[in-house]
Specification:
By secondary structure, this protein is α/β, with parallel strands linked by helices. The protein has helices at about 20-35, 50-55, 55-75, 90-115, 195-205, 225-240, 335-350, 375-385, 400, 430-445, 450, 465-475; strands spanning about 10-20, 40, 120-130, 130-135, 140-150, 155-160, 175, 190, 210-215, 245, 250-255, 260-265, 275, 280, 285-290, 320-325, 360-365, 370-375, 385-395, 410-415, 420-430. The strands form five sheets. It has a five-stranded mixed beta barrel.
Length: about 475
């Protein structure tokens, strides 16, 4: 039975969540399900935060649509499909589809709030006490919301890059929000930052016809991910037509009516060069969004990255104020925020909330997809952990051959002594779905032999996972 907090006075809540993104709205719904009287403060016109409004969801709609367009141009003929005439993209219809997906999902969250009796306070909140949030209402005026607990779930925002001042309205130098709303396909685009957001958007606009160059300060794409995985990923992206300038920094931009002149130089210093392009996408990361929240006035500590400091139960220095998601340490992932939100409210309600950070998957939704969970080879070597590695290529997978999607591989890392799986890294078709099996296994301490002895349907892409597991503890059958 739910251990609901008792004694809430009229107009007082057990919990007020500040922020209606994936972490915040999930936490609010879970709290209500546990019997806590709950309100959520959100100033956007729609619930869902960055993810649903201008992040994960609209970008995935564009990725899917652009993939179909690219397939119609370059892959249909391999399946015997002939198109007489020109394949073209209706940009208005493309953007209309994106908006309809976003609006449908955001409206659905509002319905879930009503179903679970969560009050949506429409406005922007500021914490003014250990148990009080002042809300500047969207409709005008102010409202005080009092609660036994306050959960900060305000998410993150694009990190500005001084040499590239963003102006989404002019559509020349844009961020991850502005790049979703370009009205036409630019002839050329420079993407500053070779991380997840930059590479996904580079893929979208490259498929639609833009000449895309990715500029990355480091010597590798997606720093921190498994190097063998990313090396294979970069090779596939180059084959698809993306251009890369690694170990390069952008030092200035000059906007004109015709485009943008980008000045760059080697990251270690050296001669500058310029490049003319139609659009620049600044995708150099994100930072916690805590401006105007009143944290300093409350004496809440922030780390050097501007993240709210919390203990292992997501409590701040003020016991009644909690924080989750992008505004605390850890990967900035919607599903990580959701898990933290659930764990935090379970703890508030008297249960034992917990998040296993070794079992948080990450996915890059390019084509092929890239997915990973657990440790990388580099991390295991750094920690001095002896391990075995098993790898299986999709080229030897029957379903991959049948659907002409053979780029990539599955790689499994397991403890050399115990065979416990420590990390899984996949590049290939449907990797974002396949990683769930790996995540479940890591959560429950599975061995590579456990995976290998589990029957996988034939013919499926997931058989590559089984074969990689066989390669880890014994030998694969099909390679």
């Amino acid at each position: 039975a739910a251990r609901a907090l008792s004694g809430s006075a009229a107009g007082e809540y057990d919990l007020v969540v500040v922020g209606g993104g994936p972490g915040g709205y999930v936490a609010a719904i879970k709290a209500a399900q546990l019997g806590l009287k709950t309100a959520c403060v959100e100033g956007r016109d729609f619930l869902g935060g960055t993810c649903l409004n201008v992040g994960c969801i609209p970008s995935k709609a564009l990725l899917e649509s652009s993939h179909h367009y690219h397939a119609a141009q370059h892959e249909f003929s391999q399946h015997g499909i002939r198109i007489d005439g020109t394949v073209s993209m209706d940009m208005d219809a493309l953007m209309s589809h994106k908006r309809s997906v976003v609006e449908g999902l955001c409206t659905g969250i509002e319905g879930l709030f009503k179903k679970n009796k969560v009050d949506w306070v429409k406005g922007w909140g500021k914490i003014i006490g250990a148990n009080e949030v002042a809300v500047s209402l969207n409709g005008g005026g102010n409202q005080s919301v009092k609660a036994k607990n306050i959960l900060i779930a305000t998410g993150s925002e694009p990190t500005p890059l001084p040499p590239c001042p963003v102006d989404n309205d002019k559509r020349r130098i844009v961020d991850s929000t502005g790049v979703l709303d370009l009205e036409s396909v630019p002839k050329s685009m420079v993407v500053v930052g070779g991380g997840v957001i930059g590479l996904e958007m580079a893929s979208v606009w490259s498929r639609l016809g833009a000449e895309v160059t990715v500029v990355e300060f480091m010597d590798s794409l997606c720093p921190g991910m498994d190097k063998e995985l990313i090396k294979g990923f970069e090779r596939v992206l180059k084959k698809q037509g993306l251009n890369f300038k690694m170990k390069t920094k952008v030092t200035g931009t000059e906007v004109s009516d015709s485009g943008v002149k980008v000045t760059m130089e080697p990251a270690s210093g050296g001669d500058a060069e310029t490049m003319e392009t139609d659009v620049v996408l600044v995708a150099t990361g994100r930072r916690p969004f805590t401006k105007g929240l009143g944290l300093e006035d409350m004496g809440l500590a922030l780390d050097k990255h501007g993240r709210v400091e919390v203990d292992e139960h997501f409590r701040t220095q003020v016991p009644s104020i909690w924080a989750i998601g992008d505004c605390i340490k850890g990967p900035m992932l919607a599903h990580k925020a959701e898990e933290e939100g659930i764990a935090a409210v379970e703890t508030m309600a008297g249960f034992a909330g917990h998040v296993n950070y070794d079992a948080i998957p990450g996915v890059i939704y390019t084509f092929p997809e890239v997915a990973a969970v657990g440790a990388t080879e580099e991390q295991l070597k750094e920690q001095g952990i002896a391990y075995r590695k098993g790898k299986f290529n999709f080229m030897a997978n029957s379903r991959g051959r049948a659907i002409l999607q053979t780029d990539g591989f599955v790689k499994i890392l397991a403890d050399k002594e115990t065979d416990r799986v420590l990390g899984v890294h996949i590049i290939g078709p449907n990797a974002g779905e396949m990683i769930a099996e790996a995540t479940l296994g890591i959560e429950y301490g599975a061995s590579s032999e456990d995976f290998a002895r589990t029957c996988h349907a034939h013919p499926t892409l997931s058989e590559a996972f089984k074969e990689a597991a066989l390669a880890t503890f014994a030998k694969p059958i099909h390679s």
